[in-house]
Amino acid sequence: KGLLGPTNGIALASLIELAHAFLMDLEELSPLAKFLSVKIVIFFTFWQGWVLKAFVYGGAFVEWIDPAHKWTTQEQIAQAVQHGLICVEMFGASIAHHWAFPDSDWRILRRMYEERALSMPEPLTSRNPVLKRVQVVDFSDILQIARSGLAPTRFAN
Fold it and tell me: What are phi and psi of 71, to 5 degrees?
């Protein structure tokens, strides 16, 4: 629990750095809509869980306890309510995701890939399978970020 605050801070700083570096490049793919459509589901279900815990604490589900039908605790009832609500809410989320993640994104990605592939020279490592695998573990980008701060060099000025 002691590391939760710092790790959340690091994750948030990394997300901001990632957005700063790539938001303009990915603008055609609506990354903000994608992020928000997922984040809203997580945020909403998290707070919904807290509200249901408050209902349990206040005794709102006491009258629903029915041992004959195996509803023996308020927590069990609150969990069933949350599961049912999530099923209903996912219908709305699926509509939002259909809008945020359209099936036409693959065309944009294919065009972007082709544009970048044509503009880049073939690296020497692409012919050597051993060098190709070693290149995956290249720490030079991490060292460059550590030297220049959090902003990539193209945004340093």
Answer: -100, 90
Whether the Cβ atoms of residue 22 and residue 112 lie closer than 8 Å to each other: no
Dist. CA 84–CA 76, nearest whole Å: 12
How far apart are alpha carbons 77 and 82 in whole angstroms?
A: 9
**Pick from 32, 48, 23: which is nearest to 96 by CA?**
32
How many Cβ atoms from other residues are within 10 Å of residue 26's Cβ?
Answer: 16
pLDDT in tens, 30-72: 988 998 999 899 999 999 999 999 999 999 999 989 888 888 9
The pLDDT assigned to 148 comes to 64
Residue from 122, 112, 91, 95 nearest 24 by CA: 112
